[in-house]
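#lab-general

N.A. 3:47 PM
ok so I finally got the sequence cleaned up, no stray characters, all 369 residues accounted for. can someone with queue access submit it? mine expired

B.Y. 3:52 PM
send it over

N.A. 3:53 PM
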Amino acid sequence: MDLGYIVNAMIPTWSSVVILHSFFIYLAIAGSFLPGRIVPGVTLSDGTRLHYRCNGLVSLLLLVSLLGIGAALKLISPTVIADKGLELLFTTFIFSFIATLVLYAAGCKSRDQGSSLKPHVTRNFIHDWWFGIQLNPQFMGVDLKFFFVRAGMMGWLLINLSVLAKSIEDGSLSQSMILFQLFCMWYVVDYFFHEEFMTSTWDIIAERLGFMLVFGDLVWIPFTFSIQGWWLLRNKVELTKAAVFTNCLIFLIGYLVFRGANKQKHVFKKNPKAPIWGKPPKVIGGKLLASGYWGVARHCNYLGDLLVALSFSLPCGISSLIPYFYPVYLLILLIWRERRDEVRCAEKYKEVWANYCKLVPWRILPYVY
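B.Y. 4:20 PM
back already:
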């Protein structure tokens, strides 16, 4: 990949623009009209609640089916995303940049005083553009924050599937590629199967929509989480049976901790009296769950996420650090986020949080951190 190719890829072509916007249009239509459970979000500070149509799994399966039919009829190439990967990366980045400028301008003009749309302006342009000034901006009735998260997760899977098709086309399909694809596919499909859990996460309930979230959803998630697949296209890795078994075990443990912890938190927020591991939940100060995974570590879901991320990279072997970019980045991000969460929780819950920390002293990994 020479410098000239990179420079050319930085200039969006009509094909890349059409691919990206066709994807967005499909998601907007599918998200608005396909059947799905209507899930109420958390109660906002003004007492209102947003409602989310959780039909991401149906939207994903229909999209993959339509693309599969299109490929079978030779209406679309299954490797088009892999062939235009860098071009689509820059096109998506430019879209994210422009979209967040529009969000900033629209937010500044808003006179809405509701929690979702009330502008929070500091007069520091970089700060406001980066972190956003509105909590839940909408466009034509579409909640943009929920929309962008969905687009990023689906985009990740579509990139992986196109890379898989490319490896089959050029004859480089390997056991490592299959393992990586299976782990990622399971993770993404499971995400949409439990999509309603996303409605109670910090990003949805507390983070305003600015460049940080939009870039993270549309560019960072799909294009960096798929690095392992791109790397395996050009590098052959032979795995022993012991390595395959260990890799599967790490993924399974990580998945069970990650999904189990998030499910316990979501269920607790909906019904604080629901049993945890077959027992009544232990609650600190009537607010903080200290049972199940949340009685083991204060951010145990982060541990599960890290183990899953590691399992995505292990199929690539240990000959290069490039495939490990994602788990290393995630480790740094989650430690930073954990520190930020600790400060916010200490300010919000005060003595209740201090009591929780005494009862559950470990942050992420018991007896280590």
